[in-house]
Specification:
It is found in: Cell membrane. This protein is an alpha+beta fold. The protein contains 15 helices and 34 strands. Helix 1 crosses helix 7. The chain binds guanosine-5'-triphosphate (GTP).
Length: about 600
């Protein structure tokens, strides 16, 4: 297609404001999928979506659209990941586009990720098309939200397009705006090939499929290609576009978006942000800004039943095929046996992975409390990075410990400023600024240690603001902190998987809360079980789980049989997730207890 007739764009939105629905609706409006496909897709459950998902929910769909000027345009819709953890991936996807449709829910108004995504889109120099969605809802206030968009973001209210992605109302106007406002791709057709990899997935038949935007030059099949950052040469087995299914083509020209089947077996080799060039005629410079994804949060993941260790390894191997950011290595815990130390981009990524392991691979897992990556300066001047409390060297060898801090932006109705301030202060947060966006809404900016953010912060924020606040965060740097390791002893035995690193000022409070909580979740045994929190040799808090009374069932004898059965069933259920530690059984909740003491 003639470069002048290409438009590359993405859709940015706060979660649930209707990005996917609008995307589907654009596909219907251009005849790329049928109304029936759209309905089916909406009704899809997880499994189905996964099976067909890669093709239908491809993250770069080509549509052909005949505009009112009579000309046919090639519109490439590039999807961006929805979670804050994937900021880097979002940025790369934005760099593959020239424009962005900004979707704001007409019943909700602007939220934290609306802003965060908009700033990223502006950084990438994208032309913005503001849209107010869900105008079919009775609670919709499209004029008010359009005004908010004008006041806060500076786009004239009359240019904001009111749409319903659900009914399709005014969706045609959005397509027209894409053609009229989004500039065609620039880029030099005669220069050596440079294609940006902005996503990838693993296909069992064709190997890793790289999603690319051709920036300069052109791509053809059977060319010898080179991944510049990875330093790997490949042959393009197949190239094509998603329309919406994978459709092979002979060439991808300058400015076009499509895929390259690389034949490679590991997504880790095809990193988002890498540049593809010709092996025989390489570009002088790769496209700027490549950085490999770096995990920020680590947790131990163990099978409840030690026999499932190999299944867990297989499941992680399979997940990794499609998740280049997932890293893991075997880890041994005295308490939990053989498992893995797994690294994640952030909390949401961690939740997604844990849930997939359990749901899709049917594994019964115990996850330890998450840890951030600490930098430890040793007295001998050396600096090491650790991602598990167990790796912390002896205090006598430590000069200083540094921890990662985040810049956190919270968007909230002003009624909740008090409760948010309190939450953030409890979490060692440092106030940076407060901006009123209108009479009722404020944007609060704080600096907060990541370790405080990964422990139940988001849920607390939601519950303290009745779900009204939204947040976004970015890494801001490492800072020294007065940090100590808090060990937990159950029945006099230290349980490595329960150790945490805490700020010294909070050690007593956290230690006390943790042993109290453990007392509640550790079932009674035949004997008394002391639970202690200690820093080094010094015990700072203690609780005791009293011994079991003679017979739990005694009081049921001769009485209600169903009640007795229920009791036994309940015990059986509880067993599923018990780990035997010496002679004490510790349930899964114990390992997550630390998440509930923030
Ligand atoms: P994430 O995938 O979580 O980022 O959300 P999203 O922004 O893609 O939102 P999605 O398209 O999944 O829509 C969220 C919810 O809003 C769904 O229940 C949709 O059915 C609904 N929705 C989307 N657009 C409209 C609309 O125009 N009208 C109405 N009434 N509901 C809509």
């Amino acid at each position: 297609m003639d470069q002048k007739h290409i438009r590359n764009f993405c859709i940015i939105a706060h979660i649930d404001h209707g990005k996917s629905t609008l995307a589907d609706r654009l596909l219907v409006a251009t005849g790329t999928i049928t109304e029936r496909d759209m309905k089916e897709q909406v009704l899809d459950d997880m499994d189905l979506e996964r099976e067909r998902g890669v093709t239908i929910k491809a993250s770069a769909v080509r549509m052909l659209y005949t505009a009112p000027d009579g000309e046919t345009y090639e519109l490439n819709l590039i999807d961006t990941p929805g979670h804050v953890d994937f900021t880097y991936e979002v940025r790369r996807a934005l760099q593959a586009a020239e424009g962005a449709i900004l979707v704001v829910d007409a019943t909700q108004g602007i939220e934290a990720q609306t802003l965060a995504n908009l700033y990223m889109a502006l950084d990438a120099n994208l032309e913005i098309i503001p849209v107010v969605n869900k105008i079919d809802l009775p609670a919709a206030q499209p004029e008010l939200v359009a005004e908010e968009i004008e006041n806060l973001l500076g786009f004239p209210a009359e240019e904001v397009i009111p749409v319903s992605a659900k009914t399709g109302e005014n969706v045609e106007q959005v397509l027209q705006a894409v053609v009229e406002k989004v500039p065609p791709p620039s880029g030099d057709p005669d220069a050596p090939l440079r294609a940006l990899v902005f996503d990838s997935h693993y296909d069992p038949y064709k190997g890793v499929i790289a999603y690319v935007r051709v920036v300069d030059g052109a791509l053809a099949t059977n060319q010898k290609l080179r991944l510049m950052a990875a330093g790997i040469d490949i042959e393009a087995l197949e190239i094509g576009t998603f329309s919406p299914r994978m459709t092979p083509t002979d060439r991808l020209e300058t400015g076009e978006v499509g895929y390259v089947a690389t034949g490679l077996k590991e997504v880790q080799d095809v990193r988002v942000g890498d540049t593809i060039t010709l092996a025989n005629k390489p570009a002088a410079e790769p496209l700027p800004g490549y950085e490999p994804a770096k995990p920020m949060v680590f947790a131990g993941i163990y099978p409840v039943d030690n026999e499932d260790y190999l299944d867990l390894r297989d499941a992680l191997d399979k997940l990794r095929l499609n998740d280049a950011a997932l890293v893991y290595e075997p880890e041994n815990s005295a308490a939990l046996g053989q498992g893995f130390r797994v690294g994640f981009l952030g909390l949401f990524h961690m939740e997604i992975v844990q849930e997939r392991l359990e749901r899709e691979y049917n594994l019964n897992l115990i996850a330890t409390a998450p840890s951030v990556v600490y930098r430890v300066v040793l007295t001998n001047g050396e600096e090491i990075e650790i991602d598990s409390p167990a790796e912390l060297p002896d205090p006598s060898k430590i000069e200083e410990i540094l921890e990662p801090w985040m810049r956190v932006q919270i968007w909230t109705p002003s009624d909740y400023i008090g409760p948010i301030m309190e939450l953030v202060t409890n979490r060692r947060g440092v106030f940076e600024k407060m901006e009123y966006l209108d009479e009722k809404r404020v944007l609060l900016t704080y600096q907060l240690p990541l370790s405080e953010l990964i422990v139940d912060f988001y849920d607390q924020l939601k519950s303290r603001t009745r779900g009204y606040a939204s947040m976004d965060y970015q890494f801001s740097g490492y800072q020294p902190g007065d940090l100590v390791k808090l060990d937990i002893l159950v029945n006099e035995q230290p349980v490595d998987a329960l150790s945490i690193i805490v700020h010294r000022d909070q050690a007593y409070e956290k230690g006390s809360a943790l042993v109290r909580r453990l007392k509640e979740v550790i079932p009674r045994q035949q004997f008394k079980v002391p639970i202690q929190a200690a820093i080094g040799r010094r015990v700072i808090a203690r609780q005791t789980v009293p011994a079991l009374r003679k017979d739990v069932l005694a009081k049921c004898y001769g009485g209600d049989v169903t009640r007795k059965r229920k009791l036994l069933e309940k015990q059986k259920e509880g067993k599923k997730r018990l780990k035997k530690l010496g002679n004490v059984e510790i349930p899964q909740e114990a390992f997550m207890a630390v998440l509930k003491i923030g």
